[in-house]
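Morning run. Coffee first, then this:
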Amino acid sequence: MPDFPKEPAALAAFFQKHGEDCLPGLLGIDVVEIKKGSCRLTMQIEQKHFASNGYLHAASVIALADSACGYGCVASLPEGASGFTTLELKSNHVGTALAGVITAEASMAHGGRTTHVWDAVVASAETGKAIALFRCTQLILYGK
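And here it is:
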């Protein structure tokens, strides 16, 4: 993994730029804020985010939440860590949004030297209504 900037605004700009050609960029995910212990991302809902049944695809919501937790994890890595990999993730979908912007607010529930556990709530930016609850566990990596 590359050396990540430590300053929150520089880290947010880093992920915005480096995600352009990856899944976050393809989905139109925007980095709003990243700091130790939390991350906030947004995504403008477009046709590409829908399933064939006309509802927001669960994978679109999961990608937003997982990105928020992953970016937050990087901002919160313990001293000497070189990165992380996801061990487990779970999502509960409690609603949907058909238009507008959705946000993912991620927060660290556990920040150990070997594992992190992150929670995220994905909600409609316009109404504040939660559409998904997400939890993931990351294995902290050391060395190259």
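The radius of gyration is 15 Å. Good start to the day.
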